[in-house]
Amino acid sequence: xxxxxxxxxxxxxxxxxxxxxxxxxxxxxxxxxxxxxxxxxxxxxxxxxxxxxxxxxxxxxxxxxxxxxxxxxxxxxxxxxxxxxxxxxxxxxxxxxxxxxxxxxxxxxxxxxxxxxxxxxxxxxxxxxxxxxx
Length: 134
Prior knowledge:
The radius of gyration is 33 Å and the shape is rod-shaped. The N and C termini lie far apart (78 Å). It is an alpha+beta fold and 134 residues long. It has a five-stranded antiparallel sheet. The chain has a two-stranded antiparallel sheet with strand order 1-2. 31% of the residues lie in helices and 24% in strands. It has helices spanning 29-38, 40-71; strands spanning 2-4, 7-9, 78-81, 86-89, 99-105, 108-113, 117-121.
């Protein structure tokens, strides 16, 4: 505490100290960098591009490819629904249709909503036998 003309000042400003040449003071680059990295907002700004390129962008590209595959469905393509039902497309769907007719067994046809299709396999694409082995 510093007394000024009979009053007591609780928060008195400190007098600036003289810096010795070559010493690291409060205005040095290292001190400023430490303050910058300790700030939560700056850490969020640094991490945001990493999250975008490692998580969000690949997910958007995968969703775009999936939409394109659903839009290009043809008669005879094998599809797998989100529920795990595997079948073959019987009718060539129109782009505006929300449903696809799928044959899951001989003479057993069901209508499936396009958005529930998890995987689309082309006619000539073989089933992956590596994942089927138990």
